[in-house]
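Long-time lurker. I teach an intro course on protein structure, and each term I like to show students one example going from raw sequence to a predicted 3D structure in token notation. This year I'd like something fresh instead of my usual example. Would anyone be willing to generate the tokens for the chain below so I can use it in lecture? Attribution to the forum is fine with me.
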Amino acid sequence: MNPKVWIEAALNGAWTKRVQPRIPVSVNETIEDGIAAAQAGAAILHIHAYDEKSGVQNDDPATYAKIIEGIKAEVDVIIYPTISSAAQAGSEVGVVGAYRYEPATHLGQLGHLEWAIVDPGSVNFSTLDDIRADQLGMVYMNVESDIRTGFAIAEKFGAHPTMALYEPGFIRLAAAVSARYPALRQPIYRFMFSEQFTFGFPVARYGLDAYLAQLARFAPGAPWMVATLGGDITPLIPDVVSLGGHVRVGLEDAVFGCQKSNADLVTEAVEAISLAGGSPASAQDVRAA
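-- Reply from a regular --
Happy to contribute to a lecture. Here you go:
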């Protein structure tokens, strides 16, 4: 048996080059980086749009469309945008509101939305280093009305919701709320691990087992992936392949200051998957599954 393993590359995130110097920021950089990651073996790309002058995420729907159209002109790959995770001005609390899904709505209207982000819960984003330096983190906010908006948009445009699960309880909320949308396509559950942040589990088998037990009870048979923020998911890849899961890598997820490219990280994932007896899936394989 040679299982087909989906590889997603999260190209940049909201970190800016100050934190993650090798992320793509401009439209052309992101297109080139996305093409390289796809050619290395990624079937799925996750992108954040930036303002090129300031180097800060801006989530302009037209910018997302340019990036996706540029990448898809060269390679067949599934691409989806983010939602804003910025903190409210002068606050530790993240922004909320349906406007966060404007890029997904715009891409859906253009026929570009195959997957759509829906993060089913709120979480403290605090790094161990910042805590030791007495620097405050932030709360990444996803109120239930925003979560429902995300599922409704995915349902409207026939997109698969892809969900970051920072704590095991997110699985319960995701399963319960997504069930309220009868025409919704199959959600993808992504288990998040970290070494730099304090949420959830470190990159360890016991954490994977806990997530899988929760999934088996509340969303049995659903497709699942593993990923990190501020970590390296590679040690879990042999277990993931043997258990039927999928993998996300990329500079959004890597330890801050990573000197590898997104294509490098995808190549390493391909090698680890192959050593574990799997093979990278194509975008067509993912769609068929």
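Some talking points for your students: The mean pLDDT is 97. The chain has ten helices and 14 strands.
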